[in-house]
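Progress note, sequence design subtask.
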């Protein structure tokens, strides 16, 4: 059953009161009735509440209450996902926009999001979707098979769950991933990786690639700016890297005065090198004043360049800067002979100097060193275009 009606008394909540593990009975939520698909990962508590076990917030819900993410709710003594099959719209993006630089470079990816989020980042750069309580925005409805079919019809090599965190719509994302695999389309999760151990296994084993947002490298940062915990995200990174086939890249949004300390960046880079290895690509991207941090300045380009150098010095082989024109720092280089193997300027490819390696790998043509990732024999030609699409327009 698909959600088709939201409660009439939907009330916006104040994110500033969120706790990492909120006791929803303490909030002033209004009792609502929900429709949706049955959710996984929850259990009944002795006091009559139901605990959602999907993410570390472990929301404890009475009948008629929503979790902090706003899209999972308790109704008829179970947790339901209220956004299954609903989207805020679809767009074909360059895969480099996710960002993924080592996953089918140059190809188009069919991207969509739903609504809600399980983090409460004060610096959210997608707040109009992730903080949305307006479910009227979810105008584009599609079953998993429709999305897979649309990806094929538009020549997309992959489908991305993005714009808001797919962890909170796990059941839908996993069904879409299965439908895509049936037709040879891959799936990409753009996520903060804030998820409990058991659902983490099911979720990332269903994905072909992930870009995980490592927001900072102190528990203080996660607690004060995202109301979350760093340790859980590090566990997710370790799990994806060592226990799945999912290709992973990391993004770190650098916020002036909050997580741009060179010592912290060096510590984060060393942790990645020691725990994930030198070949996980890392993207440093620029903050722009948004949401609840309008008074914080945008990240200077020099800060991104410095962060990249720090990560290189720590031994990481593939470090990029985002949201800028800087071909020198956005291209891919052979970690052995330093040849520029894939030229890149923002989302646009230029040089393509790699040779096939194994099934879907690539190598430097000069010295034969493997370039880690998932590659076609030839680059895609999508360029930097963004193309909104309506799934209803796909012929049946
Ligand atoms: S997924 Fe949503 S309802 Fe479940 S614990 Fe996390 S925030 Fe709460």
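Output:
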């Amino acid at each position: 059953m698909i959600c088709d009606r939201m409660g009439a008394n939907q009330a916006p909540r104040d994110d500033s009161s969120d706790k990492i593990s909120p006791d929803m009975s303490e909030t002033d939520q209004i009792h609502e009735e929900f429709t949706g698909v049955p959710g996984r990962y929850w259990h009944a508590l002795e006091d009559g509440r139901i605990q959602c076990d999907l993410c570390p917030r472990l929301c404890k819900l009475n009948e008629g209450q929503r979790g902090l993410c706003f899209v999972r709710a308790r109704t008829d003594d179970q947790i339901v996902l209220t956004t299954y099959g609903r989207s805020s719209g679809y767009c074909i993006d360059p895969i480099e926009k996710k960002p993924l630089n080592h996953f089918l470079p140059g190809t188009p990816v069919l991207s969509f999001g739903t609504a809600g989020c399980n983090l409460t980042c004060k610096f959210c750069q997608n707040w109009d979707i992730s903080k949305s309580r307006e479910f009227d925005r979810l105008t584009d409805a599609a079953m998993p098979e429709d999305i897979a079919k649309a990806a094929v019809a538009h020549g997309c090599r992959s489908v991305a769950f993005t714009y808001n965190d797919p962890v909170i719509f796990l059941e839908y994302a996993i069904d879409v991933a299965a439908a895509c695999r049936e037709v040879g389309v891959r799936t990409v999760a753009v996520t903060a990786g804030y998820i409990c151990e058991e659902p983490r296994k099911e979720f990332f084993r269903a994905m072909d690639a992930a870009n995980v947002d490592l927001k900072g490298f102190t528990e203080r940062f996660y607690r004060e700016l995202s109301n979350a915990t760093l340790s859980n995200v590090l566990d997710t990174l370790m799990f994806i890297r060592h226990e799945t086939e999912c290709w992973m890249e990391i993004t770190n949004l650098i916020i002036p005065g909050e997580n741009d300390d060179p010592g912290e960046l060096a510590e984060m880079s060393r942790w990645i090198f020691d725990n994930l290895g030198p070949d996980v690509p890392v993207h440093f991207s620029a903050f722009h004043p948004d949401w609840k941090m309008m008074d914080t300045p945008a990240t200077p380009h020099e800060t991104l360049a410095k962060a990249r150098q720090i990560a290189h010095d720590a031994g990481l082989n593939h470090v990029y800067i985002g949201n800028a024109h800087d071909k020198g720092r956005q291209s891919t280089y052979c970690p052995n002979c330093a040849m520029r193997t894939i030229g890149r300027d923002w989302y646009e490819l230029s040089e393509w100097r790699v040779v096939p390696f194994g099934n879907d790998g690539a190598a430097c043509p000069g010295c034969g060193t493997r370039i880690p990732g998932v590659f076609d024999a030839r680059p895609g030609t999508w360029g930097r275009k963004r193309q909104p699409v309506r799934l209803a327009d796909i012929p049946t």
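Residues 15-81 form one domain. Work on this subtask will continue into the next period as scheduled.
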